[in-house]
Amino acid sequence: MKKIGNKLIIGIDHGYGNIKTANCCFPTGVMKSDSEPTFAGDLLVWNGKYYSVGVGHKEFTADKFDDEDYYVLTLAAIARELKREKITDAEVIIAAGLPLTWVAEQKENFKEYLLQHSEVNFKFRNIEYHIKIAGADIYPQGFAAIVNNISDFTGINMLCDIGNGTMNIMFVNDKKPDPRNCYTEKFGTHKCVQEVQESLMRIHHAEPPEEMITDVLRFGKADIDEEYLKTITDTAKEYVEGIFQRLRKHGYDPKIMKLHVVGGGSCLICNFADYDKSRVITNDDICATAKGYERMLEMKLIRNGKKI
Fold first, then answer.
1. Exposed, middle or buried: residue 303 (CB in 10 Å: 0-12, 13-18, 19+)?
2. Distance (Å, rounded) from C-alpha 239 to C-alpha 272?
3. How many CB atoms sit inside 10 A of residue 222's CB?
4. Residues 167-192, buried b or exposed e (16+ Cβ, 10 A)?
5. CA angle, corner 130, sides to 126 and 134, nearest 5?
6. Which of 66, 135, 244, 283 has the fewest CB within 10 Å, making it most exposed?
7. Cα dist from 57 to 17, 102, 229, 289, 290, whole Å
8. Rounded distance, CA 104 to CA 110, Å?
9. Which pLDDT score is estimated for 59?
10. Domain residue ranges in the chain
11. What is the per-residue pLDDT across 221-266, written as a single tens digit (0 to 9) for each?
12. Architecture of domain 154-189+216-275 in CATH?
Protein backbone atom coordinates (compact mmCIF):
# COMPACT_ATOMS: atom_id res chain seq x y z
CA MET A 1 0.00 0.00 0.00
CA LYS A 2 1.27 3.45 -0.96
CA LYS A 3 -0.01 6.89 -0.03
CA ILE A 4 -0.55 9.75 -2.47
CA GLY A 5 -1.97 12.83 -0.79
CA ASN A 6 -5.01 11.69 1.18
CA LYS A 7 -5.53 8.61 -1.00
CA LEU A 8 -4.19 5.08 -0.64
CA ILE A 9 -2.97 3.02 -3.60
CA ILE A 10 -3.69 -0.68 -3.11
CA GLY A 11 -2.33 -3.11 -5.67
CA ILE A 12 -4.35 -6.28 -6.19
CA ASP A 13 -3.28 -9.23 -8.31
CA HIS A 14 -6.57 -10.98 -9.18
CA GLY A 15 -5.19 -14.46 -9.83
CA TYR A 16 -7.25 -17.50 -10.73
CA GLY A 17 -5.87 -19.43 -7.79
CA ASN A 18 -5.03 -16.72 -5.28
CA ILE A 19 -5.61 -13.04 -4.67
CA LYS A 20 -2.40 -11.20 -3.85
CA THR A 21 -1.72 -7.76 -2.44
CA ALA A 22 1.65 -6.31 -1.54
CA ASN A 23 1.46 -8.04 1.84
CA CYS A 24 -0.96 -10.96 1.69
CA CYS A 25 -2.18 -13.91 -0.35
CA PHE A 26 -5.41 -15.91 -0.07
CA PRO A 27 -7.40 -18.37 -2.25
CA THR A 28 -9.94 -17.02 -4.73
CA GLY A 29 -12.85 -19.15 -3.57
CA VAL A 30 -16.07 -17.38 -2.57
CA MET A 31 -19.14 -19.06 -1.05
CA LYS A 32 -22.26 -16.87 -0.82
CA SER A 33 -25.13 -17.39 1.61
CA ASP A 34 -28.22 -15.54 2.84
CA SER A 35 -27.52 -16.30 6.50
CA GLU A 36 -24.38 -16.37 8.59
CA PRO A 37 -22.58 -19.69 8.08
CA THR A 38 -21.79 -21.96 11.03
CA PHE A 39 -18.07 -21.85 10.33
CA ALA A 40 -17.43 -18.22 9.57
CA GLY A 41 -13.71 -18.21 8.72
CA ASP A 42 -12.85 -15.14 6.65
CA LEU A 43 -16.39 -13.83 6.50
CA LEU A 44 -17.28 -10.72 4.49
CA VAL A 45 -20.73 -9.18 4.98
CA TRP A 46 -21.90 -6.85 2.22
CA ASN A 47 -25.18 -5.79 0.71
CA GLY A 48 -27.15 -8.05 3.06
CA LYS A 49 -25.27 -11.20 2.05
CA TYR A 50 -22.60 -13.34 3.69
CA TYR A 51 -19.48 -14.34 1.76
CA SER A 52 -17.01 -16.94 3.00
CA VAL A 53 -13.76 -15.81 1.39
CA GLY A 54 -10.94 -18.18 0.54
CA VAL A 55 -13.06 -21.34 0.43
CA GLY A 56 -11.63 -23.46 -2.41
CA HIS A 57 -10.61 -21.94 -5.75
CA LYS A 58 -12.61 -20.10 -8.36
CA GLU A 59 -12.90 -21.87 -11.70
CA PHE A 60 -10.96 -20.41 -14.63
CA THR A 61 -12.85 -17.70 -16.52
CA ALA A 62 -11.52 -15.56 -19.32
CA ASP A 63 -13.65 -12.61 -18.16
CA LYS A 64 -13.11 -11.71 -14.50
CA PHE A 65 -16.03 -9.28 -14.55
CA ASP A 66 -18.74 -11.84 -15.36
CA ASP A 67 -19.94 -12.23 -11.76
CA GLU A 68 -19.54 -10.54 -8.38
CA ASP A 69 -16.89 -12.91 -7.00
CA TYR A 70 -13.84 -10.86 -7.95
CA TYR A 71 -15.50 -7.72 -6.60
CA VAL A 72 -16.05 -9.41 -3.24
CA LEU A 73 -12.46 -10.64 -3.32
CA THR A 74 -11.33 -7.08 -4.09
CA LEU A 75 -13.11 -5.81 -0.96
CA ALA A 76 -11.47 -8.56 1.12
CA ALA A 77 -8.05 -7.66 -0.29
CA ILE A 78 -8.54 -3.98 0.52
CA ALA A 79 -9.65 -4.84 4.06
CA ARG A 80 -6.58 -7.02 4.63
CA GLU A 81 -4.25 -4.21 3.58
CA LEU A 82 -6.07 -1.59 5.64
CA LYS A 83 -6.12 -3.78 8.75
CA ARG A 84 -2.31 -3.86 8.73
CA GLU A 85 -2.36 -0.09 9.24
CA LYS A 86 -5.36 -0.13 11.59
CA ILE A 87 -7.45 1.86 9.07
CA THR A 88 -11.19 1.36 8.62
CA ASP A 89 -12.17 4.50 6.68
CA ALA A 90 -10.19 5.34 3.56
CA GLU A 91 -10.18 6.72 0.04
CA VAL A 92 -8.64 4.06 -2.17
CA ILE A 93 -7.28 3.86 -5.71
CA ILE A 94 -7.08 0.30 -7.01
CA ALA A 95 -4.11 -0.82 -9.09
CA ALA A 96 -4.88 -4.11 -10.83
CA GLY A 97 -3.97 -6.05 -13.95
CA LEU A 98 -4.85 -8.54 -16.67
CA PRO A 99 -2.90 -11.08 -18.75
CA LEU A 100 -0.53 -9.42 -21.22
CA THR A 101 -2.47 -9.98 -24.42
CA TRP A 102 -5.89 -9.36 -22.83
CA VAL A 103 -5.23 -5.89 -21.43
CA ALA A 104 -6.13 -3.90 -24.54
CA GLU A 105 -9.47 -5.67 -25.05
CA GLN A 106 -10.63 -6.07 -21.44
CA LYS A 107 -9.07 -3.09 -19.65
CA GLU A 108 -12.08 -0.76 -19.75
CA ASN A 109 -14.57 -3.49 -18.77
CA PHE A 110 -12.47 -4.57 -15.80
CA LYS A 111 -11.92 -0.97 -14.73
CA GLU A 112 -15.67 -0.29 -14.89
CA TYR A 113 -16.26 -3.46 -12.87
CA LEU A 114 -13.92 -2.31 -10.09
CA LEU A 115 -15.51 1.16 -10.08
CA GLN A 116 -19.13 -0.06 -9.97
CA HIS A 117 -19.58 1.50 -6.50
CA SER A 118 -18.01 4.82 -5.53
CA GLU A 119 -18.58 4.09 -1.83
CA VAL A 120 -18.77 0.71 -0.11
CA ASN A 121 -19.70 -0.21 3.44
CA PHE A 122 -18.93 -3.78 4.46
CA LYS A 123 -17.70 -5.92 7.32
CA PHE A 124 -14.74 -8.28 7.10
CA ARG A 125 -13.57 -10.46 9.98
CA ASN A 126 -16.02 -8.58 12.25
CA ILE A 127 -14.47 -5.20 11.43
CA GLU A 128 -16.59 -2.57 9.68
CA TYR A 129 -15.08 -0.65 6.76
CA HIS A 130 -16.17 2.45 4.88
CA ILE A 131 -14.30 2.76 1.59
CA LYS A 132 -14.42 5.39 -1.12
CA ILE A 133 -13.16 4.06 -4.47
CA ALA A 134 -11.48 7.13 -5.95
CA GLY A 135 -10.22 5.40 -9.09
CA ALA A 136 -8.69 2.31 -10.67
CA ASP A 137 -6.09 1.56 -13.29
CA ILE A 138 -5.22 -1.68 -15.10
CA TYR A 139 -1.72 -2.87 -16.00
CA PRO A 140 -0.19 -5.88 -17.80
CA GLN A 141 0.60 -8.92 -15.68
CA GLY A 142 4.15 -10.16 -15.81
CA PHE A 143 5.82 -6.85 -16.55
CA ALA A 144 4.45 -5.44 -13.30
CA ALA A 145 6.37 -8.11 -11.39
CA ILE A 146 9.71 -6.77 -12.65
CA VAL A 147 9.08 -3.03 -12.73
CA ASN A 148 10.86 -2.58 -9.40
CA ASN A 149 14.04 -4.24 -10.71
CA ILE A 150 13.88 -3.37 -14.41
CA SER A 151 17.50 -2.20 -14.25
CA ASP A 152 18.55 -5.87 -14.16
CA PHE A 153 17.13 -6.49 -17.63
CA THR A 154 20.06 -5.51 -19.80
CA GLY A 155 20.58 -7.36 -23.06
CA ILE A 156 17.92 -9.77 -24.35
CA ASN A 157 15.53 -11.26 -21.83
CA MET A 158 12.43 -13.41 -21.90
CA LEU A 159 9.98 -12.90 -19.04
CA CYS A 160 7.70 -15.79 -18.10
CA ASP A 161 4.93 -15.18 -15.55
CA ILE A 162 3.39 -18.50 -14.49
CA GLY A 163 0.10 -18.07 -12.65
CA ASN A 164 -2.61 -20.50 -11.68
CA GLY A 165 -4.63 -20.12 -14.87
CA THR A 166 -2.34 -18.55 -17.44
CA MET A 167 1.29 -18.27 -18.46
CA ASN A 168 2.31 -14.85 -19.80
CA ILE A 169 5.42 -14.41 -21.93
CA MET A 170 7.14 -11.16 -22.89
CA PHE A 171 10.50 -10.08 -24.28
CA VAL A 172 12.29 -7.32 -22.39
CA ASN A 173 15.31 -6.01 -24.28
CA ASP A 174 17.71 -3.48 -22.78
CA LYS A 175 15.22 -2.67 -19.99
CA LYS A 176 12.34 -2.05 -22.42
CA PRO A 177 9.34 -4.38 -22.94
CA ASP A 178 8.71 -5.42 -26.54
CA PRO A 179 4.93 -5.11 -27.18
CA ARG A 180 5.32 -7.03 -30.45
CA ASN A 181 6.40 -10.14 -28.59
CA CYS A 182 3.78 -10.79 -25.90
CA TYR A 183 1.91 -14.07 -25.50
CA THR A 184 -0.67 -15.55 -23.14
CA GLU A 185 -1.22 -19.29 -22.85
CA LYS A 186 -3.73 -21.20 -20.73
CA PHE A 187 -0.98 -23.30 -19.19
CA GLY A 188 -0.90 -22.20 -15.56
CA THR A 189 -0.11 -24.32 -12.52
CA HIS A 190 -3.69 -25.56 -12.24
CA LYS A 191 -3.00 -27.53 -15.42
CA CYS A 192 -0.13 -29.25 -13.59
CA VAL A 193 -2.38 -30.05 -10.61
CA GLN A 194 -4.97 -31.59 -12.96
CA GLU A 195 -2.32 -33.73 -14.67
CA VAL A 196 -1.02 -34.92 -11.29
CA GLN A 197 -4.54 -35.84 -10.19
CA GLU A 198 -5.06 -37.84 -13.38
CA SER A 199 -1.71 -39.65 -12.91
CA LEU A 200 -2.47 -40.55 -9.29
CA MET A 201 -5.88 -41.90 -10.24
CA ARG A 202 -4.53 -43.86 -13.22
CA ILE A 203 -1.52 -45.37 -11.46
CA HIS A 204 -2.60 -45.64 -7.82
CA HIS A 205 -6.40 -45.33 -8.03
CA ALA A 206 -6.06 -42.58 -5.44
CA GLU A 207 -7.59 -39.15 -5.12
CA PRO A 208 -5.62 -37.24 -2.47
CA PRO A 209 -6.59 -33.68 -1.47
CA GLU A 210 -5.34 -30.89 -3.71
CA GLU A 211 -3.51 -29.32 -0.74
CA MET A 212 -1.18 -32.35 -0.57
CA ILE A 213 -0.36 -32.06 -4.27
CA THR A 214 0.23 -28.34 -3.92
CA ASP A 215 2.69 -28.93 -1.06
CA VAL A 216 4.78 -31.21 -3.27
CA LEU A 217 4.73 -28.72 -6.15
CA ARG A 218 5.72 -25.83 -3.87
CA PHE A 219 8.41 -27.56 -1.82
CA GLY A 220 9.41 -30.58 -3.92
CA LYS A 221 8.62 -32.96 -1.07
CA ALA A 222 5.92 -34.03 1.39
CA ASP A 223 5.29 -36.59 4.12
CA ILE A 224 3.59 -39.12 1.82
CA ASP A 225 4.21 -42.56 0.34
CA GLU A 226 7.36 -42.67 -1.82
CA GLU A 227 5.51 -44.12 -4.82
CA TYR A 228 2.94 -41.34 -4.67
CA LEU A 229 5.72 -38.78 -4.38
CA LYS A 230 7.48 -40.25 -7.42
CA THR A 231 4.29 -40.08 -9.48
CA ILE A 232 3.75 -36.44 -8.55
CA THR A 233 7.38 -35.57 -9.22
CA ASP A 234 7.46 -37.33 -12.59
CA THR A 235 4.26 -35.61 -13.70
CA ALA A 236 5.50 -32.21 -12.56
CA LYS A 237 8.70 -32.71 -14.55
CA GLU A 238 6.62 -33.44 -17.66
CA TYR A 239 4.58 -30.28 -17.08
CA VAL A 240 7.74 -28.19 -16.65
CA GLU A 241 9.13 -29.60 -19.89
CA GLY A 242 5.86 -28.45 -21.48
CA ILE A 243 6.60 -24.94 -20.21
CA PHE A 244 10.01 -24.91 -21.91
CA GLN A 245 8.51 -26.32 -25.11
CA ARG A 246 6.11 -23.38 -25.22
CA LEU A 247 8.89 -20.93 -24.46
CA ARG A 248 10.97 -22.32 -27.33
CA LYS A 249 7.94 -22.02 -29.62
CA HIS A 250 7.91 -18.31 -28.83
CA GLY A 251 11.62 -17.83 -29.48
CA TYR A 252 13.39 -18.82 -26.28
CA ASP A 253 17.08 -19.51 -26.86
CA PRO A 254 19.17 -19.87 -23.67
CA LYS A 255 22.37 -19.15 -25.60
CA ILE A 256 21.41 -15.60 -26.49
CA MET A 257 18.97 -14.55 -23.76
CA LYS A 258 18.24 -14.87 -20.08
CA LEU A 259 14.96 -16.28 -18.83
CA HIS A 260 13.26 -14.59 -15.87
CA VAL A 261 10.47 -16.60 -14.25
CA VAL A 262 7.98 -14.93 -11.90
CA GLY A 263 4.64 -15.85 -10.37
CA GLY A 264 3.52 -18.76 -8.24
CA GLY A 265 4.74 -21.25 -10.83
CA SER A 266 8.36 -20.22 -10.43
CA CYS A 267 8.68 -22.84 -7.66
CA LEU A 268 7.98 -25.56 -10.24
CA ILE A 269 10.98 -24.44 -12.26
CA CYS A 270 13.14 -24.45 -9.13
CA ASN A 271 11.95 -27.89 -7.98
CA PHE A 272 11.52 -29.86 -11.18
CA ALA A 273 13.54 -28.31 -14.01
CA ASP A 274 17.12 -28.92 -15.04
CA TYR A 275 18.47 -25.48 -15.91
CA ASP A 276 21.49 -23.20 -15.83
CA LYS A 277 21.00 -20.92 -12.82
CA SER A 278 23.27 -18.31 -14.41
CA ARG A 279 20.84 -18.04 -17.36
CA VAL A 280 17.49 -18.68 -15.66
CA ILE A 281 16.48 -16.37 -12.81
CA THR A 282 13.45 -17.14 -10.65
CA ASN A 283 11.56 -14.78 -8.36
CA ASP A 284 9.57 -16.58 -5.66
CA ASP A 285 7.90 -13.43 -4.31
CA ILE A 286 4.26 -14.25 -5.04
CA CYS A 287 3.30 -10.66 -4.19
CA ALA A 288 5.73 -9.09 -6.70
CA THR A 289 3.02 -8.34 -9.28
CA ALA A 290 0.78 -6.53 -6.77
CA LYS A 291 3.78 -4.50 -5.60
CA GLY A 292 4.51 -3.65 -9.24
CA TYR A 293 0.95 -2.47 -9.84
CA GLU A 294 1.29 -0.09 -6.91
CA ARG A 295 4.59 1.26 -8.17
CA MET A 296 3.29 1.77 -11.73
CA LEU A 297 0.23 3.66 -10.52
CA GLU A 298 2.32 5.70 -8.09
CA MET A 299 4.63 6.79 -10.92
CA LYS A 300 1.65 7.66 -13.12
CA LEU A 301 0.06 9.80 -10.40
CA ILE A 302 3.31 11.62 -9.75
CA ARG A 303 3.64 12.40 -13.46
CA ASN A 304 0.01 13.60 -13.61
CA GLY A 305 0.16 15.81 -10.54
CA LYS A 306 -1.63 13.24 -8.37
CA LYS A 307 -4.56 12.96 -10.80
CA ILE A 308 -5.69 9.47 -11.88
1. exposed
2. 9
3. 18
4. bbbbbbeeeebeeeebbbbebbbbbb
5. 140
6. 66
7. 6, 22, 23, 20, 19
8. 11
9. 64
10. 2-140+289-303, 154-189+216-275
11. 888 999 999 999 999 999 999 999 999 999 999 999 999 999 999 9
12. 2-Layer Sandwich (3.30)
C-alpha triplet 17, 61, 41: angle, nearest 5°: 40
Of the pLDDT bands very low, low, confident and very high (cuts 50, 70, 90), residue 63 is low
Predicted confidence (pLDDT) at residue 62 exceeds the cutoff of 80: no
Domains 2-140+289-303 and 154-189+216-275 fall in the same CATH topology = yes
Orientation of helix 226-249 relative to helix 189-204, angle to 10°: 140
**Residue 131: pLDDT over 80:** yes
Bridge partners, 136 (sequence order): 94
- Can you identify the CATH homologous superfamily of domain 2-140+289-303? ATPase, nucleotide binding domain (3.30.420.40)
